[in-house]
Amino acid sequence: MIRTLDPERPAYLRAVRASAWYDLVVTAGFATPWTYRLVHDALSSSGNALGLGALPELDPMQILYANLMGSVVVVWAVLRIVRPLAVHGLLDGVARTLFAAWQAYALAHGATRLLWLFFGVEVMFGLVQLVPWWRNRSTNLLNTEADPAVGHPLNVEGQ
Q1: Which one, 2, 63, 86, 155, has the greatest CB density within 10 A?
Q2: Tens digit of pLDDT for each residue in 30-39?
Q3: What transmembrane ranges does the database entry give (predicted)?
Q4: 9 half-sphere exposure, CB direction, 13 A CA radius
């Protein structure tokens, strides 16, 4: 049986921080139009060289959405690096589930197979961060029977 992390343990916070470092390194280049052009060209060249396909030609809307995603992910990554909390792992796991779903959708509709590399990392970090919460699911997420600050996984007071 695979041993999972406990959200209340320091090892879980190290996993949250590791996923944040990955996000920062991978998405920082998406945050500005100038750096995104460089990342886009590098990814397209790599995709062609590996036989996985290139990215579509750049257009202003693609650049805008890449910059919006890059900016938000960079800020979210810095928060998790500077102040990792167990609840950040839960929320990041949910976000990674959404990212992986949209990546799978894109792959199913003909996106470059280079996306599989990113999909694999999203799924892996999503599982690392969500499985511990699922295993400790005996905690009532709504915690309707106790004082709102007691035992609530979304309470950051005690973290």
Answers
A1: 86
A2: 999 999 999 9
A3: 20-36, 63-82, 114-134
A4: 10
**Rounded distance, CA 32 to CA 22, Å?**
18
Which of 74, 134, 125, 80 is closest to 103 using CA atoms?
A: 125
Give the whole-angstrom CA distance, residue 79 versus residue 99: 19
The tokens of 20 are what? 């944040």
Cβ 27 vs Cβ 78: under 8 Å: no
Tens of pLDDT, residue by residue over 8-47, are: 788 999 999 999 999 999 999 999 999 999 999 999 999 9
Own/partner contacts of 57-66, CB < 8 Å, gap of 24 or more, are 63/33, 63/36, 63/37, 66/30, 66/36, 66/40
